[in-house]
TrEMBL record:
It comes from Solanum bulbocastanum. GO terms for molecular function: serine-type endopeptidase inhibitor activity. Coiled coil: none annotated. This is Subtilisin inhibitor 1. GO terms for biological process: response to wounding. Residues 1-10 have a biased composition (Basic and acidic residues). It holds the Pfam family potato_inhibit.
Amino acid sequence: MSEDSKKLLDELPNESSPAPLPILEWSSPPGGKMSWPELLGVTAEEAERKIKEEKPELKIHIIPPNSMVTMDYRLDRVRLFVDESGKVAQEPRLG
């Protein structure tokens, strides 16, 4: 085996050395607010209106109780988790 081949093999990760982590490119978060704690307890419609006044470009999703949601993270979305009476039960936030 040539010296160059040996050097390349030495540089490869093995069981004793962790593999390098991939480099992920994240888009930077938008400016301004990223959560709205003041909207806890208000109706979903009121919360949606207030968020849209501040950031009209956001998509608002109203999530009924016990609903399943995906785990993806989106900087253009706010989920409004509501209780049985239609009031915001969790702090709305981007994602």
